Amino acid sequence: MDISQMNIRQLQQALRDGETSALELTRVCLARIAAGNEQLNAFVTVCEDAALAAAAEADRKLAAGQGGPLTGIPIAVKDIFNTQGVRTSCGSRMLENYIAPYDATAFAKLKEQGAILLGKLNMDEFAMGSSSENSASGVVRNPWDTERVPGGSSGGSAAALAAGQAVATLGTDTGGSIRQPASFCGVVGVKPTYGRVSRYGVIAYASSLDQVGPLAHSVEDAALLLGMIAGYDAADSTSVDCPVPDYLATLNQGVKGLKIGLPQEYFIEGLNPAVKQAVDAAIEVYRGLGAEIVPVSLPHTDYAVACYYLIATAEASSNLARYDGVRFGQRESSETGGLVGMYEATRAAGFGAEVKRRIMLGTYALSSGYYDAYYLKAQKVRTLIREDFTRVFEQVDLLLTPVAPTAAFKIGEKTDDPLQMYLSDIFTIPVNLAGTCALSLPCGMDGQLPIGLQLIGKPFAEATILQAAQAFESETDWHQNRPNI
Amino acid sequence: MKITRKEVEHVARLSRLALTPAEIDGLTGQMDQLLGYVEKLDELNTDSIMPTAHAVPMENAFRVDEVKSTIGLERALQNAPLSEEGFFLVPKVIE
Fold it and tell me: ipTM of the assembly?
């Protein structure tokens, strides 16, 4: 039985039929982590004993015909999710020894359905980055080519999944941090509408943009997991109280008659030829399936990165003020002593270069005399970007674009040039600013590197983009590709 | 120059970051470049545009003020760098 090509529903059936066991699935994943982690560095914490104990318990439940739809399924979550009793470092020296005192809601919901936690996944420090090179626990490598980045900030979530070290993973997406690594590692990643999934227990980066989502090998798995983690949570007052549809029920409805918009601003010069070719081929697949392809325009696209780096850094500078060496995290004392000296020394030692850069930029954008010129201006441009989407969704049901201008880039290629690194997120950032939903799914290869297709939906219309993604996946084999690792 | 070394030092103080002279130098150049880039927003006339703080229209979220269980003192303090008798311990604030 080849479990690497089985989806969660099939694995669950095999577990129920006794063809495999939770212990076997867990051991397979743990063995792959043991074999590959030194090279890939996707896991920062492996919960071997707890996972094996949970697997044994899952097997008892399965034997008794009990448990939920994830009972016995081994998963892993980005190290940004609080997981009670387990170290939650968020890629930072600051939280090197932080033990989460409670569970994040999204993770708790998967656990309630029976999922087994294998461990915590590496990431850019405090989710700030596009390459998973900014981690206190070291660089994450792409299983398709270990000289290249897996994308970021949820690089560990995508790399571990691609390498078969977990059946599914959770990530977070503030400016593309689920979709871009999913694209670079050849897996499916969903960024739900802002408010669709609770952020409770997720360490905050930019609170008006952060959103939790699943990464999986198939659209069906992603739909299943999204259905489980979605929904209002009283502990997150920004989660939205609207019904969660049965994503699986509509998954196979096809795209006949759906209007798919192609925003011209996303098909620019500078788009890598292999990416353009793969996306063009995907457009033809959709045309062949009966979708209507409509050229559209999102005229403020070019301003999104500038807008994002003011809003996200401003929010980050405020959110990260909590790391003051008092209630959690490390503490350094200063030579001069005193409370402020302790704050300054603690934060200087605990944060990495990119986090410091963003705190500085955000503090500047919010500071007296510059607030109107930078932060308020960016919030107004955000309105224009959001209105672009509102207008275009009056004409079409969803949008189709590349996820990133290129496939995975080389480790070190962009680390000296923050602006070039930021510009690698040009096609994903507008979605977070608009607050709507999008996903990435494999649609081709640039040599040995995967390419992702982005489908963007109306707010709270995750069902539509999942249904469209399923139609593409049923027609193509890209999602079955696995790296030789 | 969009930002001077002196301004960067000021922002570092506001940010409660004890930066090294080398970090200040590096950040002065990088922030200058980034602030130059974000200036492209000035191409847009936004005089009559309302700002967006949240993508999803939202009003203040109220809830009933009820006593509920919490994680408790022990767990709340377990990650504290220093604590004593159920309190967080901080350096002397008032001399």
Answer: 0.96
